[in-house]
């Protein structure tokens, strides 16, 4: 920047510089060519191929630190991943802006949106629940700890959360299933502990009259990664989290009753009583928070199948259990005949 | 004769080389234009509140420029004139903020100006907050754009011949008048360029913004949330808006400063 004007003038004049420019152009051209083909190149290990996984943002830690390396050690295939909101990943896969061969999603909707073009089946394999993670040096920490350990009733939590000075953080309900689940959890809590829905508005920091909890602006909303960072930096009193995340990141957290935490598969009718309308007008009702997996795309199918098979195998499941997930009997949905045999034999 | 031919060939090669680099740099913009449909643009931008991000970006960008002019200019001048002790240390500070990835700056800002920090406490006394507010957005943009402005402005001031300033002083001008009548006018083309680059940087700021100011939503964040919520089709029109809004000012500054320079040389 500082020498921009000077360099430009010199570049116009001398032959030496035009040679340099030519070399730079050649390098650029080579880079452009390399960029076209090389992204999925396989490593030299025996079974060649890469499991290229698009995964829900909440799986970031588990996949990058634990599961990915363990998969490579166990099978010899390479591992590559990209984490983001499940809905966003689904959009990107549909638009062709990313080309994974495996998709791990929270909830089934993001996968169903890709049928039949990208896949015709999926397997449900694990569940997690909504918890409230809190900052151990918050001025409310002792009260939160007492609620967490059962010394105080869970109903007190919702009174505490609506204190005017309480700094709560959560994610965008329009983009992130966790942001939705947190609001749905509060609606279920309002029914169970008989507090008015206007208190849900207070807890969420949205105007008292706001009818739509998803579209109303609130200064509590953060990007998912920023939310954890903010809580760990001590700049929030509490934040929404998945139980798995809280365990992996060693956060202090309060476990919520199964009737409201969206983590118990047998209570799906109870959860469905809560509903939320998103910005686009789509209505979402409460559902158990489950992880689903499918194979998408056609590249490196062997590696992709091996990834899903390892995920459903006892060693893969052990890693999920350690990561704070509740294991579910792997159950397949969709066109059964389309499921590769190596994956089908791991189903319950 | 042969030398002449070689020189001509070299000239053509230089133009071809420049064209290649230019096209490569412009690649994303050309791709953007290729992927936009008129229908997508009108349907995305005619939705109620669709242009709010544009207003937010323009407001915050203007405030950011004001802060940079007010605080960055004196620093740049002092750096260029070497009036500060340990000049390398000051420069290292400016470069460090340029070097840090914006995302990291955002995370560090959360530590620095969050509600439970010293700064956050002071702000709270004034009933202000630097979390998910316009103030937070401006702070993030200032951090992302300030190094570009300060380094550019420093170069602009350094380009002013100090002997002209000395002569004005000798002729009896007070320092403030020398600054106003000699230094600033001579540095103006460079300052305008620096400000233009900083503006472009501020308008496109994302990494730090997404951490400290998820709300209010400016254009870069709107592109990102649209992409996540409804996909590429509704995200790209905002990229076009960002280009259309952010480009004229730097382009005008570029043209003006190039003209001013050539006039001075001629």
Rg estimate of chain B, integer Å: 22 Å
Structure class of chain B: mainly alpha
Could you say what the CATH architecture of chain B is?
Answer: Orthogonal Bundle
Return the average pLDDT of chain B rounded to an integer: 90
Q: How does this model look, in words?
A:
The complex is a heterodimer of chains A (348) and B (266). By secondary structure, chain A is of the alpha/beta class. Chain A folds into 2 domains: 2-45; 47-348, D-Maltodextrin-Binding Protein, domain 2 (3-Layer(aba) Sandwich), CATH 3.40.190. Helices cover 42% and strands 20% of the residues of chain A. Chain A has helices at 4-13, 15-37, 60-75, 86-95, 109-112, 141-148, 155-161, 177-193, 197-204, 224-232, 243-248, 268-271, 301-312, 314-322, 341-344; strands at residues 50-56, 78-84, 102-106, 121-128, 130-134, 168-171, 221-222, 238-242, 252-255, 275-277, 283-285, 289-295, 326-334. In chain A, the strands form 3 sheets. Chain A has a 6-stranded mixed sheet. A 5-stranded mixed sheet of chain A has the order 7-6-8-5-9. Chain A starts with a helix and ends with a helix. Chain B has 266 residues and is mainly α. Chain B has a single domain, classed as MetI-like (MetI-like fold). In chain B, helix 7 packs across helix 9. Chain B is globular. At the A-B interface, helix 2, helix 4, strand 7 and helix 10 of A face helix 1, helix 5, helix 7, helix 9 and helix 10 of B.
What descriptive keywords fit this protein?
heterodimer; A: 348 residues; alpha/beta; D-Maltodextrin-Binding Protein, domain 2; 2 domains; six-stranded mixed sheet; five-stranded mixed sheet; 15 helices; 13 strands; 42% helix; globular; disordered N terminus; B: 266 residues; mainly alpha; MetI-like fold; 13 helices
What's the topology here?
The complex is a heterodimer of chains A (348) and B (266).
Chain A (H helix, E strand, L loop, with lengths): L3 H10 L1 H23 L12 E7 L3 H16 L2 E7 L1 H10 L6 E5 L2 H4 L8 E8 L1 E5 L6 H8 L6 H7 L6 E4 L5 H17 L3 H8 L16 E2 L1 H9 L5 E5 H6 L3 E4 L12 H4 L3 E3 L5 E3 L3 E7 L5 H12 L1 H9 L3 E9 L6 H4 L4
Parallel strand pairs in A: 1-2, 1-3, 6-7, 6-8
Antiparallel strand pairs in A: 3-12, 4-12, 4-13, 5-8, 5-9, 10-11
Helix pairs in contact in A: 8-9
Chain B lengths: L1 H34 L2 H8 L6 H30 L5 H13 L2 H12 L4 H8 L8 H25 L3 H9 L4 H29 L3 H6 L6 H12 L1 H15 L1 H18 L1
Helix pairs in contact in B: 2-12, 3-7, 3-9, 4-7, 7-9, 8-9, 9-13, 11-12
């Amino acid at each position: 920047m500082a020498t921009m004007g000077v360099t430009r003038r010199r570049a116009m004049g001398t032959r030496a510089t035009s040679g340099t420019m030519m070399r730079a152009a050649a390098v650029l051209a080579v880079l452009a060519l390399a960029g076209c083909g090389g992204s999925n190149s396989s490593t030299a290990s025996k079974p060649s191929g890469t499991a290229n996984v698009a995964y829900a943002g909440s799986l970031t830690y588990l996949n990058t630190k634990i599961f990915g390396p363990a998969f490579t050690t166990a099978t010899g295939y390479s591992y590559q991943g990209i984490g983001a909101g499940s809905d966003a990943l689904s959009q990107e896969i549909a638009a062709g802006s990313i080309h994974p061969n495996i998709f791990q999603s929270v909830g089934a909707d993001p996968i169903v949106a890709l049928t039949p073009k990208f896949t015709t089946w999926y397997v449900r394999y694990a569940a997690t629940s909504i918890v409230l993670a809190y900052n151990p040096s918050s001025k409310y920490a002792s009260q939160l700890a007492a609620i967490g350990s059962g010394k105080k009733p869970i109903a007190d939590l919702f009174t505490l959360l609506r204190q005017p000075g309480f700094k709560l953080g959560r994610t965008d309900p329009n983009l992130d299933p966790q942001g939705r689940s947190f609001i749905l959890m509060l609606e279920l809590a309002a029914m169970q502990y008989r507090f008015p829905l206007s208190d849900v508005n207070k807890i969420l920091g949205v105007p008292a009259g706001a009818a739509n909890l998803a579209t109303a602006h609130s200064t509590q909303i953060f990007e998912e990664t920023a939310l954890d960072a903010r809580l760990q930096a001590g700049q929030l009193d509490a934040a929404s989290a998945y139980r798995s995340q809280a365990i992996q990141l060693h956060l202090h957290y309060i476990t919520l009753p199964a009737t409201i935490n969206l983590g118990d598969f047998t209570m799906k009718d109870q959860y469905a009583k809560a509903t939320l309308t998103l910005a686009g007008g789509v209505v979402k009702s409460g559902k158990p928070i489950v992880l689903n997996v499918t194979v998408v795309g056609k590249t490196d199918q062997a590696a992709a199948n091996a990834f899903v098979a390892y995920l459903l195998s006892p060693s893969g499941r052990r890693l999920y259990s350690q990561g704070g997930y509740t294991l579910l009997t792997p159950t397949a949905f969709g066109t059964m005949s389309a499921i590769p045999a190596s994956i089908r034999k791991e189903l319950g | 004769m042969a030398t002449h031919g070689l020189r001509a060939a070299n000239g053509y090669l230089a133009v071809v080389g420049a064209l290649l680099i230019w096209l490569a740099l412009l690649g994303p913009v050309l791709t953007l234009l290729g992927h936009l449909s008129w229908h997508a643009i009108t349907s995305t931008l005619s939705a109620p509140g669709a242009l709010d991000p544009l207003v937010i970006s323009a407001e915050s960008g203007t405030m950011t420029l004001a802060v940079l002019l007010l605080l960055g200019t004196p620093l740049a001048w002092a750096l260029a004139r070497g009036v500060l002790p340990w000049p390398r240390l000051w420069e290292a500070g400016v470069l460090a903020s340029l070097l840090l990835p914006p995302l990291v700056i955002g995370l560090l800002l959360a530590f620095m100006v969050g509600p439970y920090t010293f700064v956050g406490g002071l702000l709270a006394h004034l009933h202000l907050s630097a979390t998910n507010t316009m103030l937070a957005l401006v702070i993030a943009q200032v951090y992302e754009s300030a190094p570009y402005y300060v380094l550019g402005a420093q170069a602009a001031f350094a380009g002013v011949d100090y002997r002209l300033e000395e002569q004005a002083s000798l002729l009896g001008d007070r320092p403030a008048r020398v600054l106003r009548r000699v230094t600033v006018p001579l540095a103006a083309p460079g300052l305008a360029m620096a400000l233009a680059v900083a503006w472009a940087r501020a308008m496109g700021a994302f990494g730090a913004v997404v951490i400290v100011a998820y709300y209010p939503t400016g254009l870069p964040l709107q592109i990102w949330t649209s992409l996540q919520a409804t996909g590429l089709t509704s995200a790209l029109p905002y990229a076009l808006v960002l280009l259309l809004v952010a480009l004229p000012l730097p382009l005008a500054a570029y043209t003006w400063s190039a003209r001013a320079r050539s006039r001075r040389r001629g």
